[in-house]
Specification:
Layout lengths: L1 H9 L5 H19 L6 H27 L3 H12 L1 H10 L2 H10 L5 H27 L2 H11 L1 H10 L7 H33 L6 H6 L2
Helix pairs in contact: 1-3, 2-10, 3-7, 3-8, 4-7, 7-8, 8-10
């Protein structure tokens, strides 16, 4: 989805290696989920909507960063500022204020709760900052593809240590195909980046295809 939106909105055409790696990630996800016994149409629909919104967010962040009007931190600031009222409305609709009030009345607020809540705020800031910085220095597609690489260890550890994982050969094979695709994407992207840096240091411009594959 991100690769398609990059082409439509930013005019960036991915290289063949990037297309193959992204295709492997998608194929692995389809294989892992097609025979999923816990399939829930509502859940998968929400995931699909989330994927579309995430892809659009990444691409438009890259577009605004390329414009160089707001900058990285200005973009973070206004993004948080404009989301204050929608978040308040959603919290009111879901009765979150009443739940927090009842939680306080029950005397459940402790120093550890405050500390953990404050820590989650800090982690949320660093997460958003990392996403913007990754998109700035790489591309929206790279930011989307680092997820499977980041979750590589977590995925395998969770398979053997958690009772939530329902083992199935199709699911196991699909996950591994998706991970192979993410590793291939990492290799293809950063190999091209290294090649472009070497050509630049040698006083030559990188080829058009090499520059495109980084975006």
């Amino acid at each position: 989805m991100t690769m398609v939106l990059e082409y439509i909105i930013l005019g960036v055409k991915a290289s063949r290696a990037v297309k193959i790696s992204v295709g492997l990630m998608i194929l692995g996800s389809v294989i892992a989920a097609v025979f999923d016994l816990t399939f829930d149409i509502w859940g998968y629909s929400m995931v699909l909507i989330n994927d579309i919104c995430t892809a659009a967010n990444s691409v438009y962040v890259k577009q605004k960063l390329n414009a160089k009007k707001l900058g990285k931190y200005g973009l973070l600031y206004y993004n948080a500022l404009f989301m204050i009222f929608p978040v308040i409305i959603l919290a009111w609709i879901n009765e979150e204020f009443e739940k927090v009030h009842q939680y306080i009345i029950a005397g459940n607020i402790t120093i550890w709760v405050v500390a953990c809540l404050s820590f989650s705020f800090v982690c949320g800031f660093f997460l958003n900052c990392s996403i913007v910085l990754c998109t700035h220095y790489n591309s929206a597609l790279t930011t989307s593809c680092v997820g499977p690489v980041k979750n590589l260890l977590v995925t395998y550890v969770g398979m053997f240590s958690s009772d939530d994982y329902l083992f199935g050969w199709n699911n196991f094979i699909g996950i591994n195909i998706s991970i192979i695709g993410s590793l291939l994407y990492t290799y293809a992207t950063f190999r091209t980046e290294k090649k472009g840096a070497e050509e630049k240091s040698a006083g030559t411009l990188p080829k058009t295809d090499d520059r495109q594959s980084l975006l």
